[in-house]
Amino acid sequence: MKNTFRGLLLVLLWAYPISIIFGLQTSDKAQNTTQLDTAYYYDEERGQFSQFPINISGADSLLSIANSLESENPLKASQAALQALELSQNIGYSDGIADSYNVLGSLYIIFGDYDIALEYLLVALEMYLDKEDFEKIGHTQNKIASVHILQENYESATRYFQSAIDQLKEVGNLELIGQATMNLGVTYYYMKDYDLALEYYELARNMTETEIDSPRLNMIAITNIGNVLIEMDRFDEAEKHLEKAIQFFDENNYYVNLSGSNLYLAKLYKRTRDYEKALKYAERGRDIALSINQSQYTLEGYEMVAKVYERLGDYENAHEQFKKYHAEHTKVLNLERITQISQIQNQFDIEQKDQQIDLLNKEAALSAVQLSEQMLWRNFLLIGLLFLVVITTLLYYLNSQRKRANMLLNKRRKEIEKQNEKLLQLNEEKNQFMGIAAHDLRNPLSSIIGITDLLETTIKDDQENKTYIDIIRQSSDRMLNMINNFLDVNLIENGLSEKNLELENISELLQEIANAYKNKADSKGIHLEINLLKENITVLLNKGNFRSIIDNLLSNALKFSEKGSTVTLSVNLRNEHVEICVKDTGLGIDEADQKKLFKRFSRLSNKPTGNESSTGLGLYIVKNLTESMNGTISCESKVGKGTVFIITFPIAKDAVLEK
Questions:
Q1: 450-465 pLDDT per residue, tens
Q2: 560 falls in which pLDDT band (50, 70, 90)?
Q3: Domain 502-650 class?
Q4: In the prediction, which pLDDT does 12 show?
Q5: Integer Cα distance of 46 and 423 in angstroms
Q6: Within a 10 A sphere around the Cβ of 441, how many other Cβ atoms?
Q7: pLDDT value for 40
Q8: Residue 497 DSSP symbol
Q9: What are the phi and psi torsion angles at 535 (to 5°)?
Q10: pTM of this prediction exceeds 0.70
Q11: Domain ranges of the chain
């Protein structure tokens, strides 16, 4: 039951009126009209409130009605809030506009449309910030944080809650500080930090018992304490808290809170395997949610009832409840809800204009105005019909254009796919050609180098010829190095460098490679220092690739070091990894060059001290070969103080360290 009770805690918290509630009473009036007080009525047939003044007082009264009905009848509350928004916009009442957006944000959370709720609340917050109304800024941030919890954005939620508390401390509103404090507990509850959640819940409850006169907020804190105690397996304590809260919410008709607390108690009995009681409270919580059109609790209620039936072995009823759960889940996620709310708004726009005309007619009490009203109605309907025809035609045209554009896009996409296929084929042919060319060039070069070696041994006294032979050998070595690099790059790009790995003794390999570089170091007057471990460390490597890596690094270190300097090859053990360092005391690498070290064909600003050649491929090859063997490479360097390249490989799990 992954998403069960997602939103349950927050609804209990934010379902608390923003403005002062005027305590309007409800009773029945004849012919489907609910009387709210001596001035305002709710017409059930038209789905709107009537007989309120078109002024600031009327807008404030509608907002009070919305607040008072928020928990008992969220849908009717939303209609009052929409009317308040329309009226405030018409008379230019900015405070009413901001408060209407705030109330609508709360109500859309009940409806389960969190994205729309967030949009309303952010608009309200921006207006409150412009007015520097710190109390409403803090309250709105509290709600925005609650939406972030429902969307599992816990970091954003914590930030908004803390900001809300800071704003509310400025104005000393203890009640809203208590709500924000409890919401922080909710955040930690969803993060499964139950100890910290309980700490914040208890803090909020203490505030409501010593500093804040708010019985409902106190019961919300007790409800949340009961819930977190369930997660901590403190079932007896949790049961007492929840039963106390249910009694309070039932007596005071707080239906949203009552639905949630019943579902909590059902969860408790399900955990303790008292399935009969679990079924009773789950059905009660679900039915209350259905009666007030609270989609999230309805969804959670169906799921809880289904799970309990499943535990009771009543699979037929369990299946039926799961069907209703999935139907409700589809409804909550479907954009149809947004369309329905939009239709209510459009209907309200039309009916509001009719109300304004009707009020003018009553004030004037002239038959001529009544006749004008009828004509206006006819014209309004004709204009509406014409507008509908225009919109329908425009939508048809736009749909045709969209289909045509999609056809062109699909055609273009297919052409691009064909071009991509051709480019891939050409690139593959290019790589094959380069590989063949480089491979065929390597064999004759190897022969030339072999012959120069032979000539060096036979021509010892002829200094002039020996000089020419050295030039031939150096040039051949450069060409062979370039060809080998190109072949390595070709292998890497075609995924052929990831050969089978075998267990290798790292110390033996490094000693063998280092021995081959002693003569080269001596020839440049550079001291090659080797610091290997005494232990035999076994690592999964491709021996050839590893040799290429160390060859490149040692060659570079010698290439960029001055005569009389030191190059060090060392090995260390760090956290089940072997760390190989190649360090020189040469020219160093500046920050600009360090950023392009491991890229293809990167030429650094430093020049080799012995005029050696460089293709710009060595470190690119080193990085790719290292990563193909599950290793990492990094560089540390300061200009004028030398450079160190650090390679790490994981030690094989079955490796044996022998001293």
A1: 777 667 677 666 666 6
A2: confident
A3: alpha beta
A4: 37
A5: 66
A6: 16
A7: 63
A8: S
A9: -70, 155
A10: no
A11: 233-334, 443-485, 502-650
